[in-house]
Each structure stands twice: as C-alpha cells, then as structure tokens.
Design a protein that fits this description.
The protein has one domain. Helix 1 runs antiparallel to helix 7 and helix 3 runs antiparallel to helix 7. It contains seven helices and no strands. The longest helix has 64 residues. Helices cover 87% and strands 0% of the residues. By secondary structure, it is an all-alpha fold.
C-alpha cells in the first residue's frame, strides 16, 4: 500500500471514529436528559399536590368569609386563609414554571444555572414565607372552627376580652419565636446546608448531583 493510500485510510478511520464518538456522546446525553427529567418528576408531583391543597384552602376561606360578612373576626380569618391558599397556588405555579423552562438538551452549565435559580427560589423565598405564615395560619383556622361552633348554637357575637386578645397575640409571637429558634439552632449546629437541601427538595439535590456527574464526564 502506498503512503498516500495509507494516509487516506487513516483519515477515513479518524472520521469514522469521530462520528462514532459523536454518536456515543449523543446517546449518553439523551440518556442523561431522560434521567434528569425523571429526577425532577417527583418534585412536579409534589407541587401538584401542594397546588390542590392551596385550592382547597383558598376556596374554604372564600366560602367562609363570604357567608360571615357581618362578623368581622370571622371574615378576617377567612380572608387570611384565602390569602394563604392563594400564595400556595402562586408559589407552586412558579416552581412548576421554572422546572418546565429547563431545556434538558441545553449545555450542562445552562441547566445548572436554571436548577440553581430553582434552588434559590425554594430556599430563599418560598421556605421563609411559608415558615412564617405556616406557623401562624393555625390561629385563623382555629377561629373559623370556633365560629362554626357558634353558628351551630345560633351565636353571632364575639367576646374580645383582654385575655382573649392576649392569648391570640402571645400564640402568634410564640409560634414565630419557635420558627426563629429552630433556625438559630440549625445554624449553631452547622446544619444550614442540610436545612437548605431539605427546603430545596430531594429531587433538586439529586438533579444537582447528576449534573455535576455529567460535567465531570465532559471535563474528562
């Protein structure tokens, strides 16, 4: 075989190897894309459940305050529950929108940035808001249940004695203080990363690990 023929054969072999490598890489990325999509599926299912709960709470609040327009404490309690449920719906829609916006065929760095924004939203916005509101929402719910009892007895008047007002305020303050204390203890124990991961969700943590694995494979 002449030298020129040998060069042509090597070039043809190189091209076939490059095509094979490109094909293998494409198959690898497709498999990883499917893994990433499946990894975030539990998060989407959880968000659907959270949205359903938000809808139920919002509708309960609307139905309650709309039938107690003449009793302002009951109306305020129903509105508070409606707001809480509506926020749950809005926050859930935000998370689902962020997940759907992820292009799994995009470069790894772009996917990592989108997942990082998802983590930031869940840990820096959603978690603190619901930690605060969730710690006190039981108070209007308790007042609503009390109103149901008064409705059954045919009573419409509320007695706002100093003791009742003090109980409401102290209950709210204690609930918020417990949330603050819990966060303080977590920081003191060096478990801040654990807390952030729990707020972000296992699906997000697993997705981050898979993306790091893909990025490491690309670098190698």
């Amino acid at each position: 075989m002449e030298l020129d023929d040998l060069k042509l054969a090597w070039q043809a072999l190189d091209r076939r190897l490059e095509k094979q490598e490109a094909l293998n890489w494409q198959i690898f990325r497709q498999g990883q894309s499917d893994r990433l999509r499946r990894g975030l599926r539990p998060l989407m299912i959880g968000q659907l459940a959270q949205m359903a709960v938000g809808v139920v709470l919002a509708l309960w609040g609307i139905r309650f305050w709309s039938t107690h327009l003449s009793i302002w404490p009951a109306m305020a309690s129903g509105i508070a529950l409606q707001v809480f449920g509506t926020l749950a719906i809005i926050f859930t829609a935000r998370v689902m929108g962020m997940v759907r916006a992820i292009d799994y065929a995009a470069p790894v760095l772009d996917i990592q940035r989108r997942v990082a924004r998802l983590r930031t939203w869940r840990t820096k916005v959603e978690a603190p808001v619901f930690a605060v509101l969730g710690s006190v929402i039981w108070i209007p719910v308790l007042l609503m249940l009390g109103q149901y009892g008064m409705d059954a007895r045919g009573t419409t008047s509320w007695t706002w004695s100093p003791g009742v007002v003090a109980w409401l305020l102290s209950s709210a303050a204690i609930s918020l203080a417990l949330v603050a204390l819990g966060y303080f203890l977590v920081r003191r124990l060096g478990r801040t990363k654990w807390l952030e991961d729990s707020h972000a969700g296992r699906s997000v943590v697993r997705t981050e690990a898979m993306l790091e694995e893909i990025a490491r494979f690309e670098r190698e």
